[in-house]
Amino acid sequence: MFFFFVGGLEQQARQVLKSGAGRCIACESRADLVEYDKVLKLFFVPVWRWPGKQPLMHCNNCNLFFPQSLSPPPEKEAALRCQFCARGVDPAFRFCPFCGSNL
User: What is the DSSP pairing of strand 88-89 with strand 65-66?
Assistant: First the structure.
């Protein structure tokens, strides 16, 4: 007898507790503190879900879940923004490193 199983277990964000609470450990983009559910899928259809034990950090860019203790602190906002591309720029710069315009 041959048994073929297509399924898996994954984590899904249920509720955002704090937006931008840290940075991702893989891609360095903003990460949110979320409550999550563990979801059992059978043939790509959610069959059973149960809540996670403690809140985790979730990166929307690379879809990674990781503990809050591993997250580096969030980046501080730059004091100066380019008037053309609206990106944060170091105040010591005279020209925007992204678009080249004069600051």
Answer: unpaired
Any residues with CB less than 8 A from the CB of 50 and at least 6 apart, and which?
37, 38
Across the strands, what pairs with 30?
A: 23
Q: Are 78 and 86 in contact (CB under 8 A)?
A: no
CA 48 to chain centre: 24
Which among 39, 47, 31 is positioned nearest to 11, based on CA atoms? Answer: 39
- CB count within 10 Å of CB 101 equals 12
> What does DSSP say about strands 56-59 and 65-66: parallel, antiparallel, or unpaired?
antiparallel
pTM of the predicted structure, to 2 decimals = 0.65
State the residue for tokens 């879940």. 65
CA–CA gap between residue 42 and residue 47 (Å, rounded): 6
Q: How confident is the model at residue 102 (pLDDT cuts 50, 70, 90)?
A: confident
